[in-house]
Amino acid sequence: MTELLIVFVVNDNVQLMDIAGPADVFAEANTLHGQPIYRSIIVAPQKTIRSSCGFVMQADYCLEDINALSIDTLLVAGAPNAARSVPAPGVIQWLSHTAPQARRFGSICGGVFSLAATGLLNNKRITAHWADIEPIRQSFPTIMINADAIVEEDGPVRTAAGVSSGLDLALALVREDLGEKVARDVARQLILFYKRPGGQKQYSRQKELSPAGRSALQSLQRQIMEHPSAHYSVDVMADMMQLERRQLTRLFTQETGLSPAQWVEQTRLAIARRLLETSRSPLKTIAANAGFGVVRTLRRAFQRHLGITPVEYRKRFGQGS
């Protein structure tokens, strides 16, 4: 099998794990496969790069020195606050020219912003770190985002959600190239999830328990947050607001982007998550206190929104987990 060149494109302040994690996956695949299939290199606007954790690295090549035709896979690494960072001069132009010549290209975490600026992700389905979803939607409205995915594939484009998900992306690429057995063996050797259970929404804390909209609506939202176990049908909430059902639904949708029922369920879910993280109360107590009534309803909500059960969530994020 011909050697596959993996190019990590980095800028100053790069998140080191975006590079080191996936590179170790490729290196382990070489070891288990018995021959050097992958060669990973760092390409940057300048030779010396300082990472976000302070480590200084030497790039293997500067942008202008790499032969684009030799690249199998091009991955743009991210950096903290990438949404507000400006790439080094020439990076976007270089990516616009070089990425389409690779067999596949993509990004890890905040690297998506540089790649999106090229226009190569327009009308493509991607994923990104949960905290970057809204900035991407606002800046690049033609990009389609799978907000819950850890890894997303669309044609030649491969994207990873955030930081540690670069490991998931690298495993997916190894699976593409060398098959299930090698990829599973790599995961076992590195003690990784072969396929991570659940999506990234289980990690998200975005916009939770935050009243939004007009003051009257915020008053209702605070009431729900403080007393989630009460009954909140659309009719009950409309009466509390002295509005017609249709008016209430329109107001919620305009101000929060959710229907009244969706907002109530999201709030109850957030409360249940907090209780699972911070208390050792039985599930039936948490279900009742969060407003779900019974464990079965709580479980269905978790599986629908987070892709895991309450028990699994507590194991990962609870006290002493």
How would you characterize this protein structure?
- It is a single chain.
- This protein has 321 residues and is of the alpha/beta class.
- It folds into two domains: 4-202, Rossmann fold (3-Layer(aba) Sandwich); 215-317, Arc Repressor Mutant, subunit A.
- 44% of the residues lie in helices and 13% in strands.
- The chain has helices at residues 16-33, 91-98, 112-116, 133-139, 165-178, 180-190, 215-226, 234-241, 245-256, 260-278, 283-290, 295-305, 310-317, and strands at residues 4-9, 38-44, 48-50, 56-58, 61-62, 73-76, 104-108, 125-126, 144-145, 151-154, 157-160.
- The protein has a seven-stranded mixed β-sheet with strand order 5-2-1-6-7-11-10. A two-stranded antiparallel ribbon has the order 3-4. The chain has a two-stranded parallel sheet with strand order 8-9.
- Helix 1 (16-33) packs across helix 6, helix 8 (234-241) packs across helix 9 (245-256) and helix 10 runs antiparallel to helix 11 (283-290).
- The protein is elongated, with a radius of gyration of 23 Å.
- GO terms for molecular function: DNA-binding transcription factor activity; sequence-specific DNA binding.
- Residues 218-316 form the HTH araC/xylS-type domain.
- It comes from Acetobacter orientalis.
